[in-house]
Automatic annotation (TrEMBL):
Range of residues in the leader sequence: none
Family: Belongs to the Nudix hydrolase family.
PROSITE patterns membership: NUDIX
Ranges where the Nudix hydrolase domain occurs: 49-180
Family annotation (InterPro entries): NUDIX_hydrolase-like_dom_sf, NUDIX_hydrolase_dom
Pfam families: NUDIX (PF00293)
Organism encoding this protein: Actinomadura meyerae
Gene3D superfamilies linked to this entry: Nucleoside Triphosphate Pyrophosphohydrolase
Protein's name according to its UniProt entry: 8-oxo-dGTP pyrophosphatase MutT, NUDIX family
């Protein structure tokens, strides 16, 4: 099958090159690549077999707090992120756009490569669909204050060691891995 327009081509390229840190992440990487090879629309929200999305663990400049958003539809605190849009040339650009839109913070520094992958089911356009989440880390400028746009979900800083009870294991794993990556340098 032929590859679709960006960010599909970028997603396929990034995931083919990405070095998974463990066997579970490697299985997800292989599944994501297989999905993209089979589905030229695999990064678009209209893909009826699920789609690639982006997640972002936004850390403060000290790496001690993480910015989470209260997702009204899920009823819990989650990392920032969302759907790839046709105008996003790369997954990283999609991650940067989504994090900026949901936080209202300009100047986020998004890592060049994904940190981890996650797969979860979520309601999308009235349907329950698999979301193949390519997750990045980002650092906010010192003193950044979240200001989501009108109608946006609440966004708030949490100490990385004291996430809200409603944060699921996928969000907790992303935050743990993001803190470890920042600590490693």
């Amino acid at each position: 099958m032929t590859e679709g327009p960006a960010p599909h081509a970028d997603a396929l390229s990034v995931l083919r090159r990405w070095q998974a840190p463990d066997a579970r992440q490697e299985r997800l990487r292989e599944a994501f690549v297989e999905h993209l090879l089979a589905r030229p629309d695999g990064t678009g929200r209209g893909c009826d077999r699920g789609h690639v999305t982006v997640g972002v663990a936004v850390l403060d400049s000290a790496g001690t707090s993480v910015l989470l958003t209260h997702h009204r539809g899920m009823g819990r605190w989650v990392q920032l992120g969302g759907h790839c849009e046709p105008g996003d040339p790369t997954l990283r650009d999609a991650a940067r756009r989504e994090a900026a839109e949901e936080s209202g913070i300009a100047g986020l520094e998004v890592a060049a490569a994904p940190l981890r992958l996650d797969r979860y089911d979520a309601r999308c356009d009235g349907r329950g669909l698999p979301h193949l989440d390519v997750q990045f880390t980002a650092t906010a400028p010192p003193g950044a204050v979240p200001e989501p746009g009108p109608g946006g979900d609440e966004a708030r800083w949490f100490p990385v060691e004291a996430l809200p009870e409603s944060a699921d294991e996928g969000t907790r794993a992303l935050v743990r891995d993001a803190v470890a990556a920042v600590t490693r340098g």
